[in-house]
Amino acid sequence: MPPAADDGGDSSMALLAEASDEIDRTTFEQILEMDDDEQEREFSRSIVFDFFDQAESTFVKMDSYLKDKDLDQLSALGHFLKGSSATLGLTKVKDSCEKIQHFGARKDETGQLDEDDDEKSLKRLAETIATAKTEFHSVEEVLKRSGYKAGQSSGSSKQPNQPKRAPLTHFLCLPLVTEKSKPQLEASLSRFRKTLSAKFLDGLPADDATPRAFGQGPRVPLVPPSAIRPVGTIHFTLGVMSLETNERVQEAADFLRGLDLKSMIETNSRANDPLIISLTSLRSMHAPQSTSVLYAGPGEDSDDLIQIASVLRSTFTEQGYLIPDERPLKLHATIVNTIYAKSGNKKIANLKINAEGLLDEWKDFVWAKDFTIEKLAICKMGAKKITDADGEIIGEEYEEMASIQFST
């Protein structure tokens, strides 16, 4: 059975929306993006279940170290659980765990002022740990009501000896925005938006003058503009990472920069330059009659690129930097994801569209032609908004932690 509430996916997402003071929906939706199957949600389920286990075991350890008055260990556990809860966007739990980290480090709750009285720190720790437990059980209940219950899917239920999945922090990717591709992508996405502005869920023409029924809201676009991804986010993901400390990030960055990409390409390619590609077509991640993700892929003759990307994924996985993923690598650049869809300032829960017409209309479209993939990068999860001098949002992009040029 799918991990959904009894009355359907819409109510599941509505529960998350109602818990906006406990769960940062944007962060949680980034986890949902990694699910291949929106019904099974195997990936996000494993992340949520692992967090449940991590939190319970961490609170048990906290109680023990609180009894032993071990401030240093309590600080370390607060830091650990802060990272795990931040990955899922569990804001209240994260904030309380940050306070635990500070109190254990003999600081005030902001981490700015020293606290010399250990007994005072221990009292604050006891109170904050109790608060964090309450907040955890509250958000746990919300997630369970939203469909994240053990035993609902035989393919993704937690097994007793199954290794825990660490929180996701970064991803390995091939950025597709270059000096040559950017103006092409901007023009293509602009054309795409303009075309979609005349398409509505009711299937009627844009200039349809049929009177609206009393109380009936405005016409809903087939694809809300907010569901179309910004140019700066366009990339091919090779895999996701859990780099929970600055040291691990630095290790992964050093490994990345030490790769002999030239030899790797020569060994795994028959083409003269497999990194010159065109981004083409429009495809659906799910059944096109009811989908939430549409993407473009590399054009014809991309076998060598896929082989190189697969080798890179395997290389980073073998070194322990990528979370293992046995699924065949699918190079896809997300163009539409309805998880970001809004009506005004309000998120549209669990929006599915019938994309059959769009796929047929855009199947031969070239989003960007004959550009070179220039680098391999490690980026931080969560696209950052880019603002102009007046504070207006003008775009989004992922923060690049490290990269290496293919030409070196």
Structure description:
The protein is an alpha+beta fold and 408 residues long. The protein folds into two domains: 9-145, Four Helix Bundle (Hemerythrin (Met), subunit A), CATH 1.20.120.160; 170-206 and 217-405, Cyclic Phosphodiesterase, Chain: A (Alpha-Beta Complex), CATH 3.90.1140.10. The chain is built from eleven helices and twelve strands. The chain has helices at 9-18, 25-32, 42-68, 71-88, 91-104, 118-145, 181-196, 246-257, 261-268, 303-318, 356-362; strands at residues 170-175, 235-241, 276-284, 293-298, 333-337, 342-343, 346-347, 366-372, 375-380, 384-387, 393-397, 400-405. The strands form four sheets. A four-stranded antiparallel β-sheet has the order 2-1-9-12, with helices on one face. A hairpin with a 5-residue loop joins strand 10 and strand 11. The longest helix is centred in the first third of the chain and has 28 residues, at 118-145. Mean pLDDT is 85; it is low at 1-12 and 151-162. This is HPt domain-containing protein. Residues 40-139 form the HPt domain.
